[in-house]
Amino acid sequence: DPSLRDLADRHGLRMGVAVSAHLLDNARYAEIAAEQYNSVTHENELKWETVQPQRGQFNWSGGDRLVDFAQANGQDVYGHTLVWHSQLPSWVADGGFSAPELEGVMEEHISTVVDRYADDISHWDVVNEAFNEDGSFRDTVFYRTLGEDYIATSLEMAHAADPDARLFINDYNVEGINAKSDALYELASSLLDRGVPLHGVGLQSHLIVGQVPSSMQANIQRFADLGLEVVVTELDIRTNTPASEQQLQAQAADYTRVFQACMAVDGCGGVTVWGVGDANSWIPDVFPGQGDALPYDHQYQPKPAYWAMHEALGGD
Ligand code: G3I
Question: Would you call 129 a catalytic residue per the annotation?
Answer without folding.
Answer: yes
